[in-house]
Design goal:
By secondary structure, this protein is of the alpha/beta class. Helix content is 41%, strand content 16%. It has 15 helices and 13 strands. Helix 1 crosses helix 15, helix 4 packs parallel to helix 5 and helix 9 packs parallel to helix 10.
């Protein structure tokens, strides 16, 4: 019988795996810890690029693959995916017998994993809790996972306070900073030539990376909003566009079809990828003039590259942001105005002094040390901490 502490990392999407990478590497390198990797959700879908292969390419052994995505992004389809996820992940936990489960963020795949762990009485360590994103049902999922979790690692002090406000004991809530910053500090990013070879489009005079996900609490507006964005982008001259496709949320397929249609007639200036992976994506941030869309990376990683972010609509509403973030409404006039500001000399002059509110790195090491030394006995039975 191994006396090692078994730490099961659950990942369902490219985005959160990119943030978990250094923590997973660290767990592998500590003698008294054993890493278990459970992949599910978009990682296993050919439609979303079968990104589990990237995890294997990075040298990790996948202990369990749990299929859960039904090929539908309707509310009923997402609900059925959650149900499949709970069922399959419960079986996986029964077989793996982890001592603690680690998960990051707020996607529906993780709601399934947290539910299965809760019922199995397995402690959960949750990363990036306490954040608010009022335009997506991720908001409710994130806080639900917080209440099901036992150790909490937040990206800012304000988020730490919010987790405590939700009734979690302060000595179990740690502000470690954003995990994405570790990638920026530790990865050797691609040269310009390597980047161009990987994405298949030369850099233009000006360049933008576009990532637009459905605002899942909006009323069927994702396609309309994205149409306004495409119309605004069409007005730009001498600008190359690098699209990363939407995730498996409600109406994500509509956006992805619109991207494909858009670049059909604009291949000289636009390219799309289902998933760039963390290395190519972060390398893009080194070479582009800005991030456009509604992805959290524009708020968390963008400021570290001293580039501007145009954050469209309500999907990230409530999240702490740097001064390099330009908020705008999801309509043509607002987006045009934001693009004008992004490219203005006045705005560009402010970028070198921008401070990233998500810290300067070291989050993975802090989480790793806590997972190594924290006693797990009695962790599952929680009391509510009243303010």
């Amino acid at each position: 019988m191994s006396s090692k502490r078994k730490i099961c990392v659950v990942t369902g999407s490219r985005a959160e795996y990119g943030l978990l990478y250094w923590l997973m590497k660290g767990i592998e390198e500590v003698d008294e810890l054993e890493l278990q990797v459970l992949v599910t959700g978009m990682h296993l879908s050919s439609e979303f690029g079968q990104t589990y292969r990237e995890i294997e390419k990075d040298g990790f052994v996948l202990d369990k693959k749990v299929e859960m995505l039904v090929s539908s992004d309707t509310p009923v389809g997402i609900s059925k995916s959650i149900a499949l996820g709970i069922s399959g992940i419960a079986d996986a936990f029964e077989e793996l017998q982890p001592d603690i489960v680690v998960m990051l963020g707020d996607r529906f795949e993780l709601l399934a994993a947290a539910s299965a762990a809760l019922v199995s009485k397995i402690p959960i360590a949750h990363l990036h809790g306490g954040e608010t994103t009022e335009g997506a049902f991720d908001e409710a999922i994130r806080h639900s996972i917080t209440k099901m979790s036992h150790l909490h690692y937040t990206a800012t002090e304000d988020y730490r306070k919010r987790v405590i406000q939700l009734g979690e004991y302060p000595d179990r809530v740690f502000n470690v900073g954003g995990l994405g910053i570790d990638n920026i500090n530790k990865l050797t990013l691609l040269t310009e030539k390597e980047f161009v070879e990987r994405v298949g489009l030369e850099l233009g005079k000006r360049n933008l990376i576009i990532t637009f996900h459905p605002a899942t609490l909006g009323r069927g507006m994702s396609g309309d909003q994205f149409g306004e964005l495409l119309e605004a982008l069409d007005t730009l001259e001498n600008t190359h566009l690098y699209f990363t496709k939407a995730n498996a949320d409600t109406n994500g397929r509509i956006i992805n079809e619109m991207i494909d249609e858009y670049i059909l007639t604009r291949s000289q200036k636009a390219v799309a990828h289902t998933s760039l992976g963390k290395l190519v994506y972060l390398s893009a941030l080194k070479y582009v003039d800005g991030i456009v869309g509604n992805s959290s990376s524009g708020l968390i990683e963008g400021p570290s590259f001293k580039i501007g972010t145009i954050n469209i609509g309500d999907r990230q509403k409530g999240r702490i942001r740097a001064e390099s973030v330009i908020d705008c409404q999801p309509d043509y006039p607002s987006i045009i105005s934001a693009l004008d500001r992004l490219f203005s000399n006045e705005f560009k002059e402010t970028l070198p002094t921008v401070r990233n509110p998500y810290g300067a790195g070291g989050a993975a090491e802090a989480v790793l040390e806590s997972l190594r030394v924290t006693p797990l006995d009695g962790l599952v039975q929680k009391s509510f901490f009243d303010l």
